[in-house]
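Appendix B. One record, verbatim.
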Amino acid sequence: MPTDNAFLKEHQLLASQVSRLSAALKHHKHTFGGNSLVLYHASSEEFLIRLLAAAHAGFDIIFPANGQVENIETASLLADYVFVDSFTGSKQLSKDMLVLDVVDNAHSAIEHITLPQTGKLTFYTSGSTGYGKPIEKHWQHINAELTNLKHTFSFDKPCQIIATVSHQHIYGLLFKLLWPVLAGYKTEFTFVEFPEQLHALVEKQNSVIITSPAFIDRLIRDNVLINSKANILGIFSSGGPLSNESAITLYKQLAIGATQIYGSTETGGIAYRQVIDNKLTPWQCFNGITVANYQQQLAVRSPYFDDDVFITQDIAEVLDDGQFILSGRLDRTIKLEEKRVNLDALERTLCSDNFIKHCKVILLKSGKRQQLGLVAALSEDGFSELDKNGKLALNKHIKRVLSGRFEAVCMPRKFRYLKELPVNSQGKLVFADLEKLFD
């Protein structure tokens, strides 16, 4: 793959920094003991250096869900040390902060970054369908997936990898940081929050964009990348389902399809696809991964985890050629007053209405009482209706939209109307954040 001098210099500098920090961590481990640490840093570059150095020094690494005090404290319960950039919490952490004196040693300068081969990594899930939980992986799983990414996706020009997602979770960690290290691409460490930031970076050189459905939805409303689309070599989307409408719009605007990655923290990447028109587009498994039906659910065999098979909560139809089609999640089928309803089906019906761009239906519990809450991002027509006739009229309209398919007991009882759905740094909806809207 073509490389350039800027990449080589960046790689060599990072390799030397990893080497020096790893030596300091090894000394600390030998002197004071301990096998695990919590790692968080807002800077992607410093995070990568600390991650590789700690792993090469023999530490198992735990990633908190984010940099909030409570999440660092929760993750620290599994660790010997906390290795974070700053801590401003009002309470004392239960574990020692790791502070190192790193000596600049010329003999530590090396030219190549190598990926660790042993040790554990613990991720916390995003909490998109409930509260986050720890998921343990091993470097052998991570390396197997990185090798697959390198062989599956390649670009014939030197390019930079730009991400609009956090490096702290598995998608951003793999695609923004570790895959470029292995495959020889330059990483733009800046965390991109807005389309205008992305445009400023893309117009400078050939780029591959690592993003999410939420960011794509914002981008396509007034796509600032159209004039620099010749510089875009690839677009990847994960962290949630990208609607076919958004995928097709993006393709029409930029003449390049978003490569959607399907998977989870538990499974790693399972499959990929590009939707560029209204034809039904199935998912293609990554090399070495096979799927089958287990009752309604998708069952996965993969080198990315130790279990013989992982049964997902996704409802799927597996085709004769090994590709598959997804049609919702089994764990989003709930029972309300003895009536079963699938929340995915409710959302699909609501999003077919021209008042709603995106929405999420969640189950709200208060004691023994259960009811549905709707959080909807309204279209311009939706806001026009809201301004003209009020919330009560819009609530009734939404119930009429659903009444053709669903019984009265399945209707949402609480409604929140927003310009955009709230997402985290991965572009994913977080269940706890949605719940707070109804407090």
